[in-house]
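Exercise 7b. Backbone tokens:
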């Protein structure tokens, strides 16, 4: 029963294995991706976020249950790396905070660079823990504005050390298999998801938005932790080598046009990525650009436009016009 729900969620919410969409051509994405009014990701301005001092929207602390012992299998679906809970496993559950009811964990996946920005600042990586509202079928969940909840955790890059390797260390054994896309999954293993938790899981921003992949349904309660976890430069380089169909796998920033709340425990000042982390991100972009020079200047312009949340050109058309004889 549970595995059927997981498979259906993958097909329904855009976490599919199909090649019918690409990060390079976001303007071609179907569904609400181009017509929706509350799309994700967004740039969160910390000073504009409403501190919920009266607990009107954020009603009490977030409660995480069962995240320390999760049996999950890993896969490269051509768009991201994701770890999905195994059949018949009792899923972890999150409740409290801005959530009304319980939400059951389904899978987590990775984006590099980060999809969200805080005060205009991107991070090297963003982890999404995806949950479906407990008691709903998938069909019901994607039709309700509160059907899904995604906990976003930012990661910054530090020098290699045992302490900095800890958060993502359990994911490393699967990476050699996941470098390229496969039809199957890497064998399931038990993962302690709490190792990827922020240092204070009560310090976050929250807003209503959408999935960041087609069909971009606006059914997500976003909970974005504002204190990043640490990963090493070596780990970041390993993830950067993964083939996800392009040089990166993050969606452009979308218009904010809605209220953003922040928890009372949220940082007074936003954690800024370390200089080392920023350098790693820039170097990653630089090496990626080198790998796509053959696509011409159109691709370079698109990288810049997508990083700042702007629309991109159709490079295939641009190349055809550029190469056309006068």
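Sequence design result:
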């Amino acid at each position: 029963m549970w595995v059927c729900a997981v498979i259906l969620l993958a097909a329904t919410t855009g976490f599919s294995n199909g090649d019918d969409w690409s990060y390079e051509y976001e303007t071609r994405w179907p569904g609400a991706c181009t017509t929706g009014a509350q799309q994700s990701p967004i740039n969160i301005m910390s000073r504009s976020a409403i501190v919920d001092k009266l607990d009107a929207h954020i009603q009490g602390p977030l409660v995480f249950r069962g995240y320390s012992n999760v049996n999950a299998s890993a896969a490269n679906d051509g768009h991201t790396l994701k770890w999905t809970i195994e059949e018949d496993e009792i899923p972890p559950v999150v409740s409290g905070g801005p959530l009304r009811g319980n939400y059951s964990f389904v899978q987590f996946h990775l984006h590099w660079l980060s999809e969200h920005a805080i005060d205009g600042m991107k991070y090297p990586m963003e982890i999404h823990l995806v949950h479906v509202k407990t008691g709903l079928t998938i069909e019901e969940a994607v039709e309700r504005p509160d059907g899904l909840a995604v906990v976003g955790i930012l990661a910054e890059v530090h020098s290699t050390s045992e302490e900095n390797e800890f958060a993502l260390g359990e994911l490393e054994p699967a990476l050699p298999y996941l470098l390229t896309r496969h039809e199957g999954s890497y064998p399931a293993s038990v993962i302690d998801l709490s190792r990827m938790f922020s240092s204070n899981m009560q310090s976050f921003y929250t807003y209503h938005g959408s999935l960041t992949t087609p069909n971009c349904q606006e059914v997500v309660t976003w909970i974005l932790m504002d204190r990043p976890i640490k990963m090493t430069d070596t780990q970041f380089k390993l993830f950067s080598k993964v083939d996800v169909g392009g040089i990166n796998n993050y969606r452009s920033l979308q218009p904010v046009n809605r209220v953003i709340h922040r928890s009372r425990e949220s940082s007074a000042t936003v954690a800024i990525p370390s200089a080392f982390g920023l350098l790693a991100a820039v170097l990653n972009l630089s090496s990626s650009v080198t790998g796509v020079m053959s696509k011409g200047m159109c691709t370079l312009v698109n990288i810049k436009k997508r990083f700042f949340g702007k629309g991109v050109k159709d490079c295939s058309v641009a190349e055809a016009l550029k190469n056309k004889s006068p």
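Instructor comment: The longest helix spans residues 275-291. Residues 295 and 319 are 8 Å apart (CA to CA).
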